[in-house]
Amino acid sequence: MSIRAAASQKGNLLLAHIPRARVVYTTTPYDYEPGAFFGVLYLSLKVHLQSPSYIYKRIEEIKGLKDGKKTVLLLYVDTDPSIPVVSGKLSALQIDCFGFSIQTLLSSGPQESAKYLTCLDDHATAMPETRPAHIWKSLRQHRRDLSKRDALPRPETPQYPEKSLFLTTIPKLKVDDAEKLLSTGQSLREIVVQASEHALQYKGFGGAKKEAFFAHLFKAFNQA
After folding, report:
1. Contact 218, 188 (CB under 8 A)
2. What is the pLDDT of residues 2-34, one digit of tens each?
3. What is the first-listed, main subcellular location in coarse terms (predicted)?
4. Residue stretches of the chain with pLDDT short of 50
5. What is the 3-state secondary structure (H, E, C) of 131-199?
6. Are 93 and 102 in contact (CB under 8 A)?
7. What is the CATH number of domain 3-128?
8. Which of 211, 139, 136 is nearest to 170 (CA)?
């Protein structure tokens, strides 16, 4: 198997940890194509903090591609994520990627980044599972619970149960709260931004829930 790499990636330190014969430089809208099924965008968190628009431009460039590839953001965490402002930016980026159906992989350095790429190449027919079994169990149960509810109109999208489950992990928020929030048609990012600005309003969303939501968003990243 070979890993296709964009010419712009020459000199990237992660390539020192991949056998040279395994890397083929080519023209690609991605940074790396490990195997035939994945398109990888590589980004350092430090670069994202300095130029947050960069990755969104890259995502826009590939969003309309019909190449059948699963898009992956390989994010090198080279800045202390326990700093509140860094934690907030990182969380917002992950939520945005979730909305774009982009898988995010966090790396602690070039060697780990290289391992992710070779793993994707070695398992090119399926995305390596990064969620623990108990998360899948919770998601399956949540889907069953939603199917039994007479709730507000909800979009029939695969991401809806995941978004709903995500919101119910926030202290004091119940399934009813998640249904009300998602029924507005807002994205998770819009909901999170409003909560961070104390501007989130809906019936039944009182002071205790607002404070719990805000505290959950801005707790230290390494406590998440």
Report:
1. no
2. 899 999 999 999 999 999 888 999 999 999 999
3. nucleus
4. 125, 127-128, 220-224
5. CCHHHHHHHHHHHHHHHCCCCCCCCCCCCHHHHHHHHHCCCCCCHHHHHHHHCCCCCHHHHHHHHHCCC
6. no
7. 3.40.50.10130
8. 211
